[in-house]
């Protein structure tokens, strides 16, 4: 490949920004620059998909942009400086940078003895009030963190992972002058960890430090599953640490764009066909059964269990009384039952459907891992809090499998979370409370492995009363020996294995993405129909009957599951 002609590439970048047309024929990037000039936005995102479809851009130019991204961000920024239009709308000059620029121009920057324009002698980074990002190709498969190698340094890469830690937003000096007056650029450090499905067997998840700047700060929070594209760069050591490290250097990702895998409920915007599909679903008189049957349709039976899990996903509004007392709206459900009744599969499916969910197991979780830990920040050397599973699942669902296998000392750590929905910390000079507004979905086995019908529920359920009282519903799922039921279940399982889908339900099960949209609409609905109240009363009546009836009467109930509320 021939040596790059940066002057020619700058002219090509300028031509692209000027002439590229959007989907409706409008000058896409000129309109963006006008919004920047009017101070409506501060970020200019150059999409590689647009460069690919521009007639004058060849593959070599695209390759240079992806392999030397930092240099070409500067080239595009210089082209934008030349193309920046005059503001067409009035805006208030209230930013520190505007006031500083006005002062420097008035003073002429050291008097302006040579007669040149003071603005021309300033570094361009000081004069810019925008940021430039380059977005990777949308069709490129993201890399896992362990696939990012030294050969990718300096290149634009796309990775996926879960955010485990976020730092405070700190000022970053962009240009150093003798009298430093410009240091308002923001930097945000994020720790990104591999997704569980990307980790090979027998390995631990790897993590990567990500730097977010400017408009990208505060776009992610711990627990978010995201896809990021950015420049993979080395971070050399300094001082005594450099002497010990030798030629070894840390690496980090300078983020250019962020895509969330799952949106929050309030971020869903229905468009076109999605809106029509949700409207048709809302007008369907059987929406309750269709939504519940769309939860894990490959799992046989458990109709009432799925209805309860649907209500768990929908939740209820949080109430705050006049005297300051708070009433939580998140439901806590525990699935208690015999082995092999698909409790764990139900938990994993709910985590897949929920916009924000964390899955963990009781044996592999500690009290600190569930709540919060105090660690030393490698950047500032200060003690910082790192949220555990319950904090990461804030405004979502935390699924805890093998709940009965947890140590009692670790299990007591979630008492406050289940009722007060906060995690209180008083360690290492840090005294605070973290929000943990999460619905807990737990799965556990009876005390003797299988449920013993000759014993009372209190004897079978191996959980302390203080914890049991915090669950809104405790489901007992029994595996009773019944020839007809077992034969029907076997046919269902064989059909799933042969066809990789559930048997016909009379309708097409909803995809998880459509389910999330329907749940978002239900979650913000303020109308409660009488049929909803009747259904709640039916469940309460069934629970009371199953709880207070004797063993002989209880054996005549639903062969799949009974309800035991706390």
UniProtKB/TrEMBL annotation:
Question: Where does this one sit in the cell?
Answer: Nucleus
Q: Which UniProt keywords apply?
A: ATP-binding, Cell cycle, DNA replication, DNA-binding, Helicase, Hydrolase, Nucleotide-binding, Nucleus
A Gene Ontology biological process term: double-strand break repair via break-induced replication
Q: Name one GO molecular function term.
A: hydrolase activity
Top EC class, one word: hydrolase
Return the Gene3D superfamilies for the record: mini-chromosome maintenance (MCM) complex, chain A, domain 1 (3.30.1640.10), Nucleic acid-binding proteins (2.40.50.140), P-loop containing nucleotide triphosphate hydrolases (3.40.50.300)
A GO cellular component annotated for this chain's UniProt record is: nucleus
- Quick check: keyword DNA-binding in the entry? yes
Per the record, what are the reactions this protein catalyses?
A: ATP + H2O = ADP + phosphate + H(+)
Q: Which family does it belong to?
A: Belongs to the MCM family.
> What's its job?
Acts as component of the MCM2-7 complex (MCM complex) which is the replicative helicase essential for 'once per cell cycle' DNA replication initiation and elongation in eukaryotic cells. The active ATPase sites in the MCM2-7 ring are formed through the interaction surfaces of two neighboring subunits such that a critical structure of a conserved arginine finger motif is provided in trans relative to the ATP-binding site of the Walker A box of the adjacent subunit. The six ATPase active sites, however, are likely to contribute differentially to the complex helicase activity.
PANTHER family (UniProt xref): DNA REPLICATION LICENSING FACTOR MCM FAMILY MEMBER, DNA REPLICATION LICENSING FACTOR MCM7
Protein name per UniProt: DNA replication licensing factor MCM7
This protein's species is Eleusine coracana subsp. coracana
UniProt lists the gene as gb23474
């Amino acid at each position: 490949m021939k040596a790059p002609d940066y002057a020619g590439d700058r002219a090509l970048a300028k031509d692209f920004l000027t002439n590229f047309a959007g989907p409706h024929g409008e000058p896409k990037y000129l309109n963006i620059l006008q919004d920047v000039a009017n101070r409506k936005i501060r970020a200019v995102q150059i999409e590689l998909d647009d460069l690919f479809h521009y007639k004058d851009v060849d593959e070599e130019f695209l390759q240079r942009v992806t392999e030397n991204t930092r240099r070409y961000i500067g080239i595009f920024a210089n082209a934008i400086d030349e193309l920046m239009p005059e503001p067409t709308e009035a805006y208030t000059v209230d930013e520190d940078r505007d006031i500083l620029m006005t002062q420097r121009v008035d003073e002429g920057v050291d008097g302006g003895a040579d007669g040149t324009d003071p603005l021309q002698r300033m570094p361009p980074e000081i004069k810019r009030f925008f940021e430039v990002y380059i977005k990777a190709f949308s069709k490129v498969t993201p890399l896992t963190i362990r696939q990012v190698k030294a050969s990718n340094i300096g290149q634009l890469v796309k990775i996926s992972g879960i955010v485990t830690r976020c730092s405070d937003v700190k000022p970053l000096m962009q240009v150093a002058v003798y009298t430093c007056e410009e240091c308002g650029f923001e930097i945000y450090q994020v720790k990104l960890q591999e997704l569980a499905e990307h980790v090979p067997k027998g390995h631990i998840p790897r993590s990567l430090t990500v730097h977010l700047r400017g408009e990208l700060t505060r776009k992610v929070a711990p627990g978010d599953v995201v896809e990021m594209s950015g420049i993979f760069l080395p971070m050399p050591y300094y001082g005594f640490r450099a002497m010990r490290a030798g030629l070894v250097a840390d690496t980090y990702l300078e983020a250019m764009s962020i895509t969330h895998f799952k949106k929050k409920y309030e971020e869903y915007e229905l468009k076109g066909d999605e809106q029509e599909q949700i409207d048709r679903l809302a007008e369907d008189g059987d929406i309750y059964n269709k939504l519940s049957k769309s939860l894990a349709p490959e799992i046989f039976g458990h109709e009432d269990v799925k209805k309860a899990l649907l209500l768990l996903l929908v939740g209820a509004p949080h109430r705050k009384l006049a005297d300051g007392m708070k009433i939580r709206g998140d439901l806590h459900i525990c699935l208690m039952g015999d082995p092999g009744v698909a409790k764990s599969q139900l938990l994993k499916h709910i985590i897949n459907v929920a916009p924000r969910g964390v899955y963990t197991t009781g044996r592999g979780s500690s009290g600190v891992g569930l709540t919060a830990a105090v660690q030393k920040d490698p950047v500032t050397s200060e003690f910082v809090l790192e949220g555990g599973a319950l904090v990461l699942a804030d405004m979502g669902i935390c699924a805890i499998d093998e709940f009965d296998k947890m140590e009692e000392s670790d299990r007591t750590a979630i008492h406050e979370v289940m009722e007060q929905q906060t995690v209180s910390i008083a360690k290492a000079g840090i005294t605070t409370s973290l929000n943990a507004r999460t619905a807990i979905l737990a799965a556990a086995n009876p005390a003797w492995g299988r449920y013993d019908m000759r014993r009372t529920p209190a004897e079978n359920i191996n959980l302390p009363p203080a914890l049991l009282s915090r669950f809104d519903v405790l489901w007992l799922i029994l595996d009773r020996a019944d020839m007809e039921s077992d034969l029907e279940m076997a046919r269902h399982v064989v059909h799933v294995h042969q066809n990789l889908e559930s048997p016909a339900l009379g309708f097409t099960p909803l995809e998880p993405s459509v389910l999330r949209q329907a749940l978002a609409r239900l979650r913000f609905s303020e109308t409660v129909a009488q049929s909803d109240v009747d259904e709640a009363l039916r469940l309460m009546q069934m629970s009371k009957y199953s709880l207070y009836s004797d063993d002989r009467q209880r054996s005549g109930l639903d062969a799949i599951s009974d309800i035991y509320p706390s």
